[in-house]
Amino acid sequence: MTVPLAFTAADVARDRAAALERLGVPRGIAVPAHIEALYDSAARLFAATASPVGVWAEVSGAEFAAVYEGEGRNAPAAPLAEIHPRAEHLALFAVTIGAETGRALERCFADQDFALAYTLDAIASVAADDAADLLERGYAESLRASSWETPDGDVLRYSPGYCGWDVTGQRKLFARLKPKAIGLTLTESCLMQPLKSVSGVFVAGPRAIHRFRPTYPFCDRCEERTCRERLRTLFARREPVTNPE
Amino acid sequence: MTVLAEIAQAVIDGDQTRVGDLTRRALGEGIHPKTVLDDGLVAGMNVVGDRFREHEIFLPDVLLAARAMYAGLDELRPLLAQEGIPSIGKVVIGTVQGDLHDIGKNLVGIMLKGAGFEVIDLGHDVAPERMVDTAVEQGAAVIGMSALLTTTMSVMGEVVALLKARNLDGKIRTVVGGAPVDDAFARRIGADAYGFDAANAVDVVKRLVGRA
To answer: How far apart are CA B175 and CA B197, in angstroms?
Structure first.
């Protein structure tokens, strides 16, 4: 079953501090008034141009194993290779902020309004992740509604291009999910268009299956290190994703 | 405060209207366009760059200053061209073939211009031949390449190899940057340098052209 979901711009552009952080403005400081004003202008432009939409489709373990294998270019050892066989449910997903925000960005650059362009870019990047979060929550709720009762069960997402899952994995993912229906396509070099998009797999199962030590060879070169934060957030969640019935 | 110091301050303040007005005033007072550029606009951007490196200001401040500087540059460009005054160096920049991310590359271009370089921005999805051909045609000293994907970063090696095949290595220098790229990768493909961020890329390019 393929499930498309649409959101509003306001749903996905909620974390002002995260967007400002992308512009080098640390959390917790008093943000200068001119940067606040810039953010507000960019947020208005985002609201006027973004049309976030996502889609997910459940896959079997065997189907996902084939998608994950991709073109055989994954790291020899990677967290998802050990996690996905222990999943109870899997779903491929993709979300996009839509093409119009990208066009607005281009216009800002053409007008030499660089500060507005970069602020809009930061908001759109954060919003793409927010949209993926919302879709992930929607998937978890749909599992809950269908009597998924695993104690301490939860959903966490993984994407090609991260943690040893080679970006060429996008090809099989796109072939199976067909996100063109929401306006999302893949270039020859495995780049999603529109750029502000996220794709990957939702992995549902006991939280413990997601635990891993970031000591893989590629971890040394990783500058993002978001895996720690994602796991911390996962284990900090209070409400278990189980059917309350 | 001299008009040049006022221009520099207006650049630092990100006040594009004032930069445009002051640049016209300086030219009206008979100050040479190159002096206005070096001691007004670039001087202001140098302060902005230093403050950014020291984390005293944020990226939006740099971008507001750059836009203000461009208001002055727009006034100077025809005069500089008319007098045949060269920039401190020409740099061809682009995101490599197959890659459409250009937000980082654009920032490098903005900051290079702010440092006084002439930048020929080829945009994104640029084929190796086009990078090299443009650098030759334009007499560029440096090619700056950006990639955000592991699937496209190998194209940087193709550009370096093409320069070598045409006996241009050493004449046209190369600098690479982008999320999946690091110093070791730059060395492996034979690039002349790696820029870990936009401000560093400017320093690296200055070093490559002997203006550090």
So the answer is: 12
